[in-house]
Every structure is written in structure tokens, then in C-alpha cells.
Amino acid sequence: MKKHPIYGRATGISPKEWWKEVVIKTMEPYYPTVPETLPEMLWTHFSTKKAYELSEGATPFLQNIRHLKKIAYETRSRKLNWGFKSVTVGVVTNSDDRVVDVLKALDVGVIYRTVSSPPSNAGETNQNASISPRDGVSIVQDEDFYDERRQWEAGVLDFVTTSYAVGVEKPDKAIFDAALASARGYLREIYNDDSGRFFWIHVGDEAEKDVIGPMRAGGVAVLYDTKRKEGELERMISIDGVGVDCACMVVKDLREMLETLEVMEFMDCYRGLGWMREPLPTAAPIKELSKKD
């Protein structure tokens, strides 16, 4: 809603207040009097797993990541010789913090949440203490993660960064910077690794938000498209319909991302478009041009 961008964050209202106004404005043309209970009912519905489902392949992907984390740990301990000493998985989403509770309801554990400023308890040593990544954001440990009654059968995410928490939305470079700061904070907390050196990939289903944005932030972008054509390995992206500006990998199933871990050193051609031009003033929407290999 343009009046209150970023789920109300930009104008100081709560996501729940934002949601109520959206429901009323949407329903008013059809119902002269919107039932008072409707916004609350819809808010509750879209705060639970009833309104969502994990994409096909997400659960086995996260379970395989758990295995790769173990291999990386053994490499860090010099018991194995893999190419990576850690694997960190996070979610960057244009949403409010309900997404964390929805993920947990879908049996996906979340270790840390990104917040835009260090909480007052920064520096405490209990399990909910925050860690400041020195980049304008902090990560706060989710209070339910270490509940021994939960097994998180679908898998575990190391952190979740929402647009409401940091005050900007994809494709703004700043939200990816906040996610990277969260990843650095996670590595410092878990592995005492302050080098800041890592290779990062962002996977998403919208060309503008999930390809152009992360590539401008210096990362590798991969387009997720469940309707990808047979044999299509990459897609050409034009930011305004005038010429081709970049290519990105395209996957149909998240499990395909596991294969990229073996070929990351060859993926620089998909990385780091900080130089990318801005769209022309009369720009058409970002276009995707299919290409078969």
C-alpha cells in the first residue's frame, strides 16, 4: 500500500494496523460496511501455515544442507577436505516478521532474526542475546529454536531478514547488505569467524527483486521458475526491454542448487553487477528472455 510502504514501517504503524487498512480499503467497494472481525480473521489466517505451503523440493533441500553443514564442520576441523568451511542459509523477504512464525509452523526452524538496531540486551550471554554485525543491523536469536521438544523436521534456516525489520524492500541493495551483515554476525557467533570472506548466492522467483537486486549488491543471482522450459539452463535479463543486460542461472527445483556448490569457482559471470545501468526514463518492465543450451 503506497500510503504506508513496507507494511507500515515507513509511516510508523504496525503490520497489523497496515493489514487492517488494506482489508478495509480492498473490501469497501464491494461491501458498504466491512465486518469488524474480518481484518482480524484474515490476519490470523495469513499468520499461520493454513495459508502457505513449502515449495516442492524445499524440505529435501534443507535436509541436504544439514548434511553439507556437517561436512563443512568436519572440513573446519581438518577431518575432511571440502571446498567450504561453513554453509549458511537465510531468507530475505519483502514481508513482516510473521514469516518467522509461519516458517516454524511449517516445521522450518529459524536460529536468528535480523533487526535494524542493537536491542538493549546486546552483549548478554543468554541464548536470546543479540550480536551486532557492525553494519547497522543486529541478529537476535529466536526464542523457540532451542526448544528440545521441536525437531524441525523440514530443516533449519540460520537467519531471516525481512523488509519490515530493516526498512527497505527488495530489490534495494540495502536489504541484501543487511542480510550479508546478518550472515557475518552468524559466522562470528557460531564459528568465531571474523574474516567476512564468503561466496553468496541469492535464489528467488522474480527477475527484478531476486536477480537485479542481488547482482547489484555483488552476489550471484539464480532465478527459481517451476515452469522452466526443458533444457533451459540460463535466462537473459533486460532491465528495460532495450537489449540484454545480464544472464542468470535458472532452476526448477531448489535441489538443483546443491550442484552449484561444486562449481562456484566458475560462476563469476553471474556475479557482481554494481556497474549495471539504470533503466531508461521510458523503461518497460524488466523482461526475461529464454535461452536453451
Automatic annotation (TrEMBL):
What InterPro entries does the entry give? HAD-like_hydrolase_domain, HAD-like_sf, HAD-SF_hydro_IA_REG-2-like_cap, HAD_sf
Task: Identify the GO cellular component terms for this protein.
Answer: nucleus
Q: Name the coiled-coil region(s).
A: none
UniProt protein name: Haloacid dehalogenase
Organism listed in the record: Orbilia ellipsospora
